[in-house]
């Protein structure tokens, strides 16, 4: 009998605020240009914290240093008939450095933007995910959890401490 087990897509997101503005990326999607927190999928053999550092670097060309876990978020996305996905987003907040010289933005990322919360709210229809705004709102509300709130079992890595890939 075929399996019908539901499996969510696991993503990570970096929520970065500096002087009242939040770092977003503008990216090409099947639905046109959309705004999002720097975010992407968790890959096999990496912790969520490693994934968010990697994704932020790929999408912003800036090194991201996580400082706190912002939260876990679930959202259902049904853009077209027959395309029904649920996303589990693991969001971190932290800081970024200056853009790294010679580092290109990931394919599909058009540019990075620093927007005030009211600018993000005003462009809610352009957000790739409703979770992008919710993460900003939670950051503004002061939500912070310790980084060690996400436990990583040693089985994620092989005996040499290297990522499984």
TrEMBL record:
Its EC number is 3.6.1.-. PROSITE patterns: NUDIX. The keyword Hydrolase applies. The keyword Hydrolase applies. Its cofactor is Mg(2+). SUPFAM superfamilies: Nudix (SSF55811). It is an enzyme of class 3 (hydrolase). Residues 5-137 form the Nudix hydrolase domain. Keywords: Hydrolase, Magnesium. One of its GO terms (molecular function) is thiamine diphosphate phosphatase activity. PANTHER family: NUDIX HYDROLASE 23 (PTHR43222), PHOSPHATASE NUDJ (PTHR43222:SF11). Belongs to the Nudix hydrolase family. NudJ subfamily. Monomer. This is Phosphatase NudJ.
């Amino acid at each position: 009998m075929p399996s019908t087990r539901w499996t969510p897509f696991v993503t990570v997101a970096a929520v970065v605020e500096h002087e009242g503005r939040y770092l977003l990326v503008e990216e090409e999607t099947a639905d046109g240009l959309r705004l999002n927190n720097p975010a992407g999928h968790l890959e096999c053999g990496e912790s969520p914290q490693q994934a968010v550092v990697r994704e932020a670097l790929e999408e912003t060309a800036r090194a991201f240093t996580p400082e706190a876990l912002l939260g876990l978020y679930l959202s259902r996305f049904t853009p077209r008939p027959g395309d029904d996905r649920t996303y589990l987003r693991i969001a971190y907040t932290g800081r970024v450095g200056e853009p790294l010289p010679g580092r290109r933005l990931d394919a599909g990322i058009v540019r990075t933007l620093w927007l005030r919360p009211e600018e993000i709210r005003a462009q809610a229809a352009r957000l790739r995910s409703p979770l992008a705004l919710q993460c900003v709102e939670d950051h503004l509300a002061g939500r912070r959890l310790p980084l060690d709130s996400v436990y990583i079992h040693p089985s994620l890595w092989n005996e040499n401490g290297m990522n499984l890939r």
